[in-house]
């Protein structure tokens, strides 16, 4: 990935193959293995280089003042990107928070723009929350942005944590993120476990557990790999990235590439020919259905929005008035509502049916914020409000077209 440097001090090596970073050699000899020993760090390090190289290929960072291919040369050159460890910490921190629940392909352009607007922890801490949320718009899970902002303010006040344990005191930093920053940016032999690592551990050790039991077992395994004396201790960041990369590109949930897997000789599930049995399926979370009503309330070409209060989904953002019932919306708008659309939106295990209404207010009420369409772009709107706006514009365009076609002139 663009924000991660190559393993150790080795120069950037080419990906094992283009695309996934790993190739499957048809007919390649399959090493025999007992499935009991630990995978060697060299085998995993190779994967980490592939991960770094692959990410750089897809990144356009010209606005940052360097191209992806210049990164290895810039390392050690005094360029701000690698100039000081604090900057490295910040960049890894931002990337790891952005990558939670979001893919690398989606994150990369946001990450680049973020570093241009908020290049240092200090500048992020000094920015307004509205500015921060506006730059997060489109990435979703806005709590991450609010916590990152709060975390930056915490760091400016208390100093940069030096260990994974200290990182846990920073708002928005959990066990995984603490391990990632400490190992990748600060070279501490701190373990980390994400969904990819969990799956790899389950198969490598043929662990039948699922859900929380598997997570606990994976953390124990990850800790054991970084104890004093283990070769991974010398390069904990590379080790951790390699494990994640193994899960993301080789030991995938489906279509896994066992024949090309660098740790296959140490894999117990492979040795037992039972890779499909791991990890054990998680118990299904029950889906809950909800109904929301949203109104595009207009007055004299302006739109009414309001801040989402604390304790509700999308707190800290702005939205078109939304209520759990049509009655609630009627009471709030005191105007005639006409329905123009409906869509479904999923939040965690909730499926929300959103009914869309329009109303023209007689007067702009003081309890709402009235903005033009252009001003609306300065506010961070959650996905349902963005979708409501898109459908509203579409509905207006269709109405105009219909009026033109049926006009007697
Ligand atoms: S890809 Fe196959 S061999 Fe490699 S760790 Fe996963 S299950 Fe084991």
Keywords:
about 400 residues, alpha+beta, 7-stranded mixed β-sheet, 7 strands
Please name the CATH topology of the largest domain: Endonuclease III, domain 1
Indicate the multimeric state: single chain
Quickly name the level 1 CATH class of the largest domain.
Answer: Mainly Alpha
> First CA to last CA: what distance?
60 Å
CATH superfamily of the largest domain: Hypothetical protein, domain 2
Strand content: 5-15%
Query: Residue-averaged pLDDT, rounded?
Result: 82
Bound molecules: iron/sulfur cluster
Order of helices and strands: HHHHHHHHHHHHHHEEEEHEEEHH
CATH architecture of the largest domain: Orthogonal Bundle
* Structural class category: alpha+beta
Count the E strands.
7
| Rg, Å, rounded | 25 Å
Count of runs of 4 or more consecutive helical residues:
17
The helicity comes to 40-55%
Which spans of ≥5 residues are poorly predicted at pLDDT below 50?
4-37, 48-77
* Overall tally of structural domains: 2
Describe the structure.
The structure is a single chain. With 409 residues, this protein is α+β, with helices and mostly antiparallel strands. 43% of the residues lie in helices and 11% in strands. It is built from 17 helices and seven strands. Strands 1, 2, 3, 4, 5, 6 and 7 form a seven-stranded mixed β-sheet that branches. The chain is elongated. Bound molecules: iron/sulfur cluster. Iron/sulfur cluster binds next to helix 11 and helix 14. Residues 200, 203-204, 250-251, 256-258, 261, 263-264, 267, 269-270, 275 line the site of iron/sulfur cluster (SF4).
């Amino acid at each position: 990935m663009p924000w991660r440097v190559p393993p150790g001090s080795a120069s950037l090596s080419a990906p094992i193959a283009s695309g996934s970073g790993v190739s499957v050699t048809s007919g390649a000899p399959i090493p025999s293995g007992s499935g009991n020993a630990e995978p060697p760090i060299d085998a995993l390090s190779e994967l980490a280089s592939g991960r770094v190289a692959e990410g750089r290929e897809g990144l356009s960072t010209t606005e940052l003042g360097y191209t992806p291919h210049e990164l290895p040369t810039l390392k050690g050159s005094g360029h701000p990107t690698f100039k000081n460890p604090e900057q490295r910490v910040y960049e890894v921190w931002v990337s790891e928070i952005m990558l939670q629940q979001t893919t690398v392909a989606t994150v990369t352009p946001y990450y680049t723009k973020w570093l241009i607007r908020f290049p240092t922890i200090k500048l992020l801490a000094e920015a307004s929350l509205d500015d921060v949320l506006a730059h997060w718009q489109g990435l979703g899970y806005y709590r991450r942005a609010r916590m990152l902002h709060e975390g930056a303010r915490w760091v400016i006040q208390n100093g940069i944590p030096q260990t994974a344990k200290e990182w846990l005191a920073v708002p928005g930093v959990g066990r995984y993120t603490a391990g990632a920053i400490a190992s990748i940016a600060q070279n501490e032999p701190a373990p980390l476990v994400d969904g990819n690592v969990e799956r790899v551990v389950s198969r490598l050790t043929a662990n039948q557990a699922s859900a929380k039991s598997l997570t606990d077992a994976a953390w124990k395994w990850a800790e054991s790999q970084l104890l004093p004396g283990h070769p991974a201790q010398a390069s904990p960041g590379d080790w951790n990235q390699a494990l994640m990369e193994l899960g993301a590109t080789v030991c995938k949930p489906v279509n896994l590439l066992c024949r090309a897997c660098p740790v296959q000789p140490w894999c117990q599930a492979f040795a037992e020919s039972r890779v499909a049995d791991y990890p054990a399926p998680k118990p299904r979370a029950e889906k809950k259905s909800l109904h929301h009503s949203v109104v595009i309330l207009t007055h004299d070409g302006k739109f009414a929005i309001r801040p989402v209060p604390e304790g509700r989904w999308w707190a800290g953002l702005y939205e078109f008035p939304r209520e759990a019932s049509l009655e609630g919306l009627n009471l709030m708008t005191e105007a005639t509502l006409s329905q123009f659309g409906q869509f479904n939106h999923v939040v965690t295990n909730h499926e929300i049916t959103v009914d869309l209404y329009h109303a023209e207010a007689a007067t702009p009420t003081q309890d709402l914020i009235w903005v033009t369409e252009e001003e609306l772009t300065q506010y961070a709107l959650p996905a349902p409000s963005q979708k409501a706006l898109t459908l509203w514009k579409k509905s207006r365009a269709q109405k105009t077209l219909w009026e033109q076609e049926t006009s007697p002139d």
